[in-house]
From TrEMBL, chain A:
Species name: Amorphotheca resinae ATCC 22711
Protein name: Methyltransferase small domain-containing protein
Keywords: Methyltransferase, S-adenosyl-L-methionine, Transferase
An example Gene Ontology molecular-function term: nucleic acid binding
InterPro entries: DNA_methylase_N6_adenine_CS (IPR002052), Euk-Arch_PrmC-MTase (IPR052190), SAM-dependent_MTases_sf (IPR029063)
Automatic annotation (TrEMBL), chain B:
Protein name per Swiss-Prot or TrEMBL: Multifunctional methyltransferase subunit trm112
Subcellular location: Cytoplasm; Nucleus
GO biological process: one example: tRNA methylation
Family: Belongs to the TRM112 family.
MF terms (GO), sorted A to Z: protein heterodimerization activity
Keyword Nucleus: yes
């Protein structure tokens, strides 16, 4: 098992603390089946021995929180993707989380260096709303642990203001609520992200890993994605079903297959 | 944030995203810091195909880096041109923007960068 990155420097008063959902993402992304999928998708073809590698995959986590997932993927890129030259970046709506996640990635990379092992190439963390600041069709792997808990209301998104709110219990509670409160069915934020996927994912290689809980109605979500067209696939690739209860979690992988255009060509 | 990040970012204002002027964002009054990293030609080769070269030419010139050639070098050209290799290594892998702004040429909105974190949250009137 790959080591979990350290988040001991993170202030969990206002930043989501790694929990069962975060660890399910780590376990799923480093599972044998997902390593095989990702390595097949992003490593060099076997047909031509002298071929150059395919271009570096661009891996983005939306809603990094402490950065435990992004730093894990970056630090263990070689094990997960079969290549260390991935480009990693993160987005979070909470500025404090952005700073913490940047630090978490840097600590994890230093630990890899100390062990004489490789790590990915980290670009940075930006503050923002979901994929709003990302250029279309650039993301090869998108990872999202959403605010998935059903709540009566969705907290308002922070907007830009020059004065930074003084630290207070209310401000901290608000920032934390952004990390878990999902509105109706816990899906209001995830729905916005899903709607943006066809545009933000790269055409040939794009895929996404999204965490859902049972109240999010994962079967409906997967069916909705398949309804986008024959080239779209959605499958459950990880779950923490043993404990049962209302917060049963699963990870769905969403991806596009290339073969459609070839199938449609006359023989 | 690495300068290379700009290759993946655009203006977050909805009306801008479909316009060509929203990319690349233009650095303004930026403070740069440089990490010292070992040469990594393989990484550079594998990143180059991801880069919008015309945008990088603009970014490099706006940040005061040496003028880039009009077309991206092939791996073979890079291997035979240590100076170009070093310049791209410095620009793409080592240089970070720590403070300043990123400006959209379409709507003129300035995204502030503080302590290496660019803030793409929008003011109320642009959401
Ligand atoms: Zn704009």
């Amino acid at each position: 098992m790959l080591p979990t990155p350290s988040t001991s420097h993170v202030e969990f008063d206002r930043i989501y603390e790694p929990a069962e959902d975060s660890y399910l993402l780590l376990d799923t992304l480093s599972s044998e089946s997902e390593k095989a999928f990702l390595q097949q998708r992003f490593s060099r073809g076997t047909s031509d021995v002298v071929a150059h590698d395919p271009p570096s995959p661009f891996v983005v986590e939306i809603g990094t929180g402490s950065g435990v997932v992004l730093s894990f993927v970056d630090a263990h890129a070689e094990t997960i993707f079969g290549r260390a030259d991935i480009l990693s970046a993160g987005v979070d709506v909470n500025r404090y989380a952005c700073a913490a996640a940047g630090r978490t990635v840097s600590v994890a990379e230093q630990e890899q260096v100390a062990k004489g092992e490789s790590h990915g190439f980290h670009l940075g963390i930006v503050a923002g709303d979901l994929v709003g600041a990302l250029r279309p069709a650039m993301v090869d792997v998108l990872i999202f642990n959403p605010p998935y808990v059903p709540t009566p209301d969705l907290p308002a998104l922070p907007t830009l203001s020059e004065e930074v709110a003084a630290p207070s219990f209310e401000e901290d509670s608000y920032l934390l609520s952004l990390s878990y409160a999902g509105g109706a069915d816990g899906m209001e934020t995830t729905d916005r992200l899903l709607d943006a996927l066809p545009e933000v994912l790269s055409r040939e290689r794009g895929c996404a890993y999204i965490l859902l809980c049972a109240q999010n109605k994962p079967e409906n979500v997967k069916q909705r994605i398949r309804n986008w067209g024959k080239e779209w696939k959605a499958e459950t690739v990880g779950s923490s079903g043993k404990k049962g209860g209302w917060e049963k979690l699963q990870i769905i992988r969403i991806w596009r297959v290339e073969s459609l255009s070839q199938e449609e060509e006359p023989k | 944030m690495k300068v290379l990040t700009l290759n993946f970012l655009t203006c977050a204002v909805k009306a801008c995203k479909s316009t060509s002027a929203a990319f690349p964002l233009h650095p303004k009054d930026c403070e740069l810091v440089s990490d010292t990293l070992e040469a990594n030609p393989k990484l550079l080769f594998n990143i180059l195909p991801r880069i919008d070269w015309n945008a990088l030419i603009i970014t490099a010139s706006e940040l005061g880096f040496p003028t880039l050639p009009p077309t991206p070098p092939t791996p073979e050209q890079l291997e035979n041109d240590p100076k170009m290799m070093q310049e791209l290594h410095t620009l793409l892998l080592e240089t970070q923007i720590s403070e300043g702004s990123l400006v959209c040429a379409n709507c003129s909105h300035e995204y502030r960068v503080k302590e290496g974190i660019a803030n793409f949250l929008l003011p109320n009137h642009l959401v």
